[in-house]
Write a structure and sequence with these properties.
Blueprint (H helix, E strand, L loop, with lengths): L2 E3 L5 H7 L4 E3 H4 L7 E6 L5 H12 L6 E6 L11 H7 E2 L1 H4 L4 E6 L15 H14 E7 L1 H11 L4 E15 L13 E11 L2 H5 L4 E7 L3 E7 L4 E4 L9 H11 L25 H17 L15 H4 L3
Parallel strand pairs: 1-2, 1-4, 3-4, 3-6, 4-5, 6-7, 7-12
Antiparallel strand pairs: 8-9, 8-10, 10-11, 11-12
Helix pairs in contact: 1-3
GO molecular function: homoserine O-succinyltransferase activity
Pfam families: HTS
Function: Transfers a succinyl group from succinyl-CoA to L-homoserine, forming succinyl-L-homoserine.
Length: 316
């Protein structure tokens, strides 16, 4: 089934050229199907690039998904036009009385700033708190995963001496878990961040569990015990060239970055990049939408009290 997006969203043409099934809102309105309603809080500077990456993953599921795009503030974006933001993005006041099947909060280029020093930290906390009553399941990505674990459970991160950048091997949890259905015992995923949560701090917390981890990059997939909040420390949405773009950007800014690990052929930036994570990235989002959103959410979103209890689905 397709991802349902506004008629003129720039991502539509890109996704259709890649044979990703998308459907305009006009066409979807003529179908007698209730699509999953997913809200995306996009904190990344290049909004269109991130929209397209996430819509690729949402468009590769068997469910029809309607998407609303949310911005954290109405200040002018340096990397995205005012017309695009005003046309396709909504402010929190516009959606705070809505309920959603899912919420995705993206990463942000804030890895070296204390949470309390982030200019919109209070707003982030407000949206996270709101989501716990108005959203069936929340997917936190990279910086947002660290922010969510800190705000909801008090698990803090530490800064790394050098940016963690590359494609790392991960090991899945040995016990059966719906989120990991179809996963290989070992799989790859990209990371790009300046901070990391000590994996033992996560293990010690009774309200969360680690579902996948990397010997080099630490915890990757962390799920709250009530299954409402999913924290992914890396970037399953990244495309083949994204780490290369970031590496070249950091070089141009004189940051002397390390070469992303296990990414270029022969670890040589002059050679091709190797994408090793797309299949598991798509599977992760598909499993999340199916088992933690679609299977639990009420048909009538106005009554979240009818949501299937978490515990009844936890071990199915």
């Amino acid at each position: 089934m397709p991802v349902r997006i506004p008629d003129d969203l720039p991502a539509a043409g890109i996704l259709e050229s890649e044979n990703i099934f998308v459907m305009s809102e006009t066409r979807a309105a003529n179908q007698d199907i209730r699509p999953m309603r997913v809200l995306i809080l996009n904190l990344m500077p290049n909004k269109i690039e991130t929209e397209t990456q996430l819509l690729r993953l949402l468009g590769n599921t068997p469910l029809q998904v309607g998407v609303d795009l949310l911005r954290i503030h109405d200040k002018e974006s340096k990397h995205t036009s005012v017309d695009h933001m005003n046309t396709f993005y909504r402010d929190f006041e516009d959606v705070r009385h809505n309920n959603y099947d899912g919420l995705i909060i993206t990463g942000a280029p804030l890895g070296q700033i204390d949470f309390e020093d982030v200019v919109y930290w209070d707003h982030i906390k407000e949206i996270i708190d709101w989501s716990q009553k108005h959203v069936t399941s929340v997917l936190f990505l990279c910086w947002a995963a660290h922010a969510g674990l800190f705000h909801l459970y008090g698990i803090n991160r530490g800064l790394l001496a050098q940016k963690r950048s590359g494609v790392f091997n991960h090991v899945r949890a040995s016990e059966p878990h719906p989120l990991l259905r179809g996963f290989d015992d070992e799989f790859y995923a990209p990371h790009s961040r300046f901070a990391e949560i000590n994996i033992e701090d996560i293990r010690r917390h009774s309200e969360v569990e680690i579902l996948a981890e990397s010997p080099e990059a630490g915890a990757y997939i962390v799920l709250s015990r009530d299954s409402r909040n999913l924290f992914v420390m890396g970037h399953p949405e990244y495309q083949k060239g994204t780490l290369n773009d970031e590496y070249l950007r950091d070089l141009s800014q004189g940051l002397n970055p390390n070469i992303p690990i296990n990414y270029y052929r022969n670890d040589d930036p002059s050679q091709d990049q190797i994408a090793r994570w797309h299949s598991h990235g798509s599977l992760l989002v598909s499993n999340w939408l199916n088992y933690y959103v679609y299977q639990l959410t009420p048909y009538d979103l106005s009554d979240m009290s009818k949501m299937t209890p978490w515990e009844s689905k936890k071990n199915t």
